[in-house]
């Protein structure tokens, strides 16, 4: 790990994936491609959502968007 941290070597994709899994972050977050850290639960939900039929996927996205809109409104007026 120290050699990776000091930029002496670069981990293989397989090793980087294992490190990301151990830290429960996305590979994008680990490599700096994203500044948003997704916890394992969120990643699992997104993965499950992507495996659903399109109709179910769209219903869930619509519901999530409504919940987010309501939460933002509550925060604005709180």
Task: Characterise this structure.
The protein has 78 residues and is mainly α. The protein is 71% helix and 0% strand. It contains 5 helices and no strands. The chain has helices at residues 2-5, 13-23, 27-31, 40-50, 54-77. The longest helix has 24 residues, at 54-77. It is elongated, with a radius of gyration of 18 Å. It starts with a helix and ends with a helix. The mean pLDDT is 88.
Shape: elongated
Overall pLDDT score:
88
Distance between the termini: 45 Å
Q: How many β strands by DSSP?
A: 0
Radius of gyration: 18 Å
Reading the helices and strands in chain order gives: HHHHH
Estimate percent helicity: over 70%
Q: Main beta sheet: strand number and arrangement? A: none
The proportion of strand residues reads under 5%
Task: Compute the number of helices.
Answer: 5
Q: Which structural category fits the helices and strands?
A: mainly alpha
User: pLDDT under 50 segments (min length 5)?
Assistant: none
């Amino acid at each position: 790990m120290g050699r990776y941290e000091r930029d002496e070597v670069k981990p293989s994709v397989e090793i980087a994936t294992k490190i990301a899994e151990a830290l429960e972050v996305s590979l994008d977050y680990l490599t700096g491609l994203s500044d948003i850290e997704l916890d394992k639960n969120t990643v699992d939900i997104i993965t499950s959502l992507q495996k659903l039929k399109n109709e179910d996927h769209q219903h869930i996205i619509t519901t999530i968007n409504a919940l987010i809109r309501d939460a933002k409104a509550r925060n604005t007026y709180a």
